[in-house]
Design a protein that fits this description.
This is CBS domain-containing protein. With about 230 residues, the chain is α/β, with parallel strands linked by helices. It has nine helices and eight strands.
Length: about 230
């Protein structure tokens, strides 16, 4: 199946921080470009970590009001961890490491899921040598999930049901609502159900899959019996 990759959506004009960049330099760099975080990169171009607004807030939270304007960061924290982090003065001290990264050939849906699961807003994109080549953000991947429901339905039928499984589309009912695909009907064998669900989930734009599939033959039970027989052998 044709898959959208990170290379199709990433930004190559990246705000880059150096390990010895100071707090105010970091704030200025992010504010000037209107971004909420940036990768910290070594002299060889390798990603060392990421500094985000949240990292800077720990520092800002404990500064005297006269030292730094409050325009750019408004949140406050009073935890001990935040107070300890407020002592950091450079990108190397402030950054979160190791950085979670993706490659240019990572499927865009996997990048989106990674950001959702990890609760982060951006992922540095690295080449085969680990050097930074771009960055992808939540805003970059949102367009993937805007495909019309009917378009997704047609793709599930043509790419999954017909092309991959060679199944009669009349046997499998495909419904799509707000990107959520519901599959129902009867497949020839039980082992095809997880395959069908996985292939459907891999389609760009599919938000989730609801499995209501049944089967005619439990080929997995036969495989289990054969496995037990070989173990008892």
């Amino acid at each position: 199946m044709d898959r959208s990759l990170v290379r199709d959506y990433m930004t190559t004009d990246v705000v880059v921080l150096r390990p010895d960049d100071g707090f105010k330099e970091i704030v200025r760099a992010l504010a000037d470009r209107g971004v909420s975080g940036a990768p910290v990169v070594s002299e060889t171009g390798r990603v060392m970590g990421v500094v985000s607004e949240a990292d800077l807030l720990h520092k800002e939270a404990f500064m005297p009001v006269a030292e730094e304007p409050r325009r750019y960061f408004a949140s406050r924290s009073s935890t001990r961890a935040a107070q300890a982090r407020s002592a950091a003065d450079t990108a190397a001290d402030l950054m979160h490491t190791p950085a979670i990264t993706v490659t240019m050939d990572t499927p865009i849906t996997r990048a989106a899921r990674t950001m959702a699961v990890q609760g982060i807003k951006r992922l540095p994109v690295v080449g085969d040598d680990g050097a930074l080549v771009g960055i992808i953000s939540r805003a970059d991947v949102m367009g993937v999930f805007l495909a019309p429901d009917e378009e997704l339905r047609r793709e599930v039928i043509s790419e999954v049901i017909e092309r991959s499984l060679w199944e009669d589309p009349e046997r499998i009912r495909v419904e799509v609502r707000d990107g959520v695909v519901t599959l129902s009907g009867r497949l020839a064998s039980k082992s095809l159900i997880p395959v069908t669900v996985a292939l459907t989930q891999s389609i760009d734009g599919v938000v989730d899959v609801i499995d209501e599939l049944s089967y005619e033959r439990d080929d997995m039970a036969f495989a289990r019996r054969e496995q037990r027989r070989s173990l008892c052998g």
